[in-house]
Amino acid sequence: MKKSGFALIPVMLWLSLFLVVPMLIVVGISFMQRDTDGNLIYTFSLDAYKIFFDSLYLGIYWDTIVLSVATTVICLLLSYPLAYYIARSGPRRQTWGLALITIPFWINFLIRTYAWVLLLRTQGVVNSLFMNLGWISEPMQMLYTKGAVLLGMVYTFIPFMVLPIYVAIEQMDRRLLEAASDLGASPWRSFWHITLPQTKSGITTGAVLVYVSTTGMFVVTDILGGAKSSMISNIIQTQFLGARNWPFGAALSVIFVITSFILIALFNKAMTSRYETVKEGRV
Amino acid sequence: MRTRRSPWLGLHSLLMIIFIYVPILFIILFSFNDSRLSAEWRGFTLDWYVSLFDNDHVMDALENSLIVAVISTLAATLLGTLAAIAVRKVTRRLKLSMNGLMYLPIVIPDIIMGLSLLVLFRLLGVETGKTTIIIAHITFSMSYVYVVVSSRLAGMGKQLEEAAQDLGASPWQTFRHVTLPQITPGIISGALIAFTMSLDDFMVSFFVSGPSSTTLPIYIYGQVKRGISPEINALCTILILVSVTLIFLAQYMLNRGKGQKKQKMLPF
């Protein structure tokens, strides 16, 4: 099959036409204007970006970043011990543990978000339970709050964090741990100086996946946050499907992708520099 | 090596598994609850499943979802498998750029993929509907097929193919009788993943669907925004069951065959 390189052509054409080109068009549109009917005016303009610097949208984007960072941090703190436990279990428990954390990954996030509506609504499971127990006399308002959105995001994206960290812990060189313990390092010290630095790649992958996915997820805010709590992804979605201000929606998308890249780069750098200093003063 | 673990670690893990599963279990439980709105158990019923099958909107959405999933799976499996096989024989540089291109749909946020496809279709004057959803699904599904089939190909090594060629088999004979039978489980596994992804996709479909091409997840979204309903619980339960079964089947297929390195089904 000498000429098999030709077999790549259909796939490359497909991905160029339906993935690369559309994204380049979106970048192009972000530098255009629209007329009052929502049609594009094909002249260069920075107007779409200027709208973003309105305090309203800056505020929404700031809220989105805070929410995404909070989701990422909480997911990391909850996931690491879980991934660690599964990766260090015996083979049988490991298989089960892995299956248990992989399954939710394949259950539609729409369904998993909806589950929280059942639990959190005024006549929902939590309120009924607490009232029957006599802990509260009036139902609590839990749905359509920022807390509900944060909970929903953490819940939705936890598998994205557990799986890469699990892989990293499973693949790390265990002999280093034995060496450290032979040399008298405490478990906590070996964790801090060996396990954590060695599983850095898993943490980074997980953090990137969770951060980017949270920022792009308009469904959770829609369903658990109600109309009041808009995130940047809700604004983007409205520009393309409702308001028909494509240049503005495109500009927001570009800003979303670029700020994600910057944050990811900063995060990567912070992780690397921390471990560089650790390496010098190793155990 | 089993290290000593603090009991807190086990307790934390147990609580996490409960946290992950309890909400899902409540959907399943309420789909059998004999009450429209109550959060309390009022007895077992199958009414909600029955009324699901009497609901024309649900049946239309199901039909759309299945049409989209079947066609996009076939196309994505063909394209993804072709690429995974072909990429082994090309230069390292081309291989790297191909891998980069193939991972794009996996790493790009769904919302960006959805809206850029919407823009493309609008500019080309293409009416959004089932066809555009199918195109979108092929685009992200073939990456997953590519990844799964590639890992199967990497796991099998090149010795058997080389042996066949040394014994005088033509490239086509080698492919037909040596390569293909070995990667078939990988192809089936990739196809099952593609089918599940298509059936489950909401974000991308939401942007490129038309008024008459509502798929099941889009239908669920519309209903959920209006509030809870027992029919939706039933529909969600069925979808959960279908997705989980398909994924277990995919995992099983991936590990079938002798001498294969055991692979874990991870989505990336």
From TrEMBL, chain A:
Write out the annotated subcellular location: Cell membrane
* GO cellular component labels: plasma membrane
Q: One biological-process term from Gene Ontology?
A: transmembrane transport
* CDD domains recorded: TM_PBP2
Which key words tag this protein in UniProt? Cell membrane, Membrane, Transmembrane, Transmembrane helix, Transport
Q: Which InterPro entries match?
A: MetI-like, MetI-like_sf
Which spans are transmembrane here? 12-32, 65-86, 98-119, 148-169, 208-226, 246-267
Principal place of residence: membrane
Question: PROSITE patterns, from UniProt?
Answer: ABC_TM1 (PS50928)
Family matches, as Pfam families: BPD_transp_1
Which SUPFAM superfamilies does UniProt cross-reference here?
MetI-like
In terms of Gene3D superfamilies, this protein maps to: MetI-like
Topology in the membrane? Multi-pass membrane protein
- ABC transmembrane type-1 domain residues are 61-267
Coiled coil spans: none
Q: Which family does it belong to?
A: Belongs to the binding-protein-dependent transport system permease family. CysTW subfamily.
Q: What is this protein called?
A: ABC transporter permease
Organism encoding this protein? Paenibacillus zeisoli
**The organism's taxonomic lineage, starting at the top:** Bacteria, Bacillati, Bacillota, Bacilli, Bacillales
From TrEMBL, chain B:
* Keywords, sorted A to Z: Cell membrane, Membrane, Transmembrane, Transmembrane helix, Transport
Q: Domain of life, per the record?
A: Bacteria
Q: Where in the cell is it found?
A: Cell membrane
What single Pfam family name could you report for this chain, choosing any that match? BPD_transp_1
| Sequence ranges assigned to domain ABC transmembrane type-1 in this UniProt record | 62-250
Spans through the membrane: 12-32, 66-88, 100-125, 131-149, 232-254
Q: By its UniProt entry, which InterPro entries does this protein fall under? A: Bact_Polyamine_Transport, MetI-like, MetI-like_sf
Question: A Gene Ontology CC term for this entry?
Answer: plasma membrane
Bilayer topology annotation: Multi-pass membrane protein
Q: Which PROSITE patterns does this one have? A: ABC_TM1 (PS50928)
PANTHER family from the UniProt entry: PUTRESCINE TRANSPORT SYSTEM PERMEASE PROTEIN POTI
Family membership noted in the UniProt record: Belongs to the binding-protein-dependent transport system permease family. CysTW subfamily.
Q: Identify this protein by name.
A: ABC transporter permease
| Originating species | Paenibacillus zeisoli
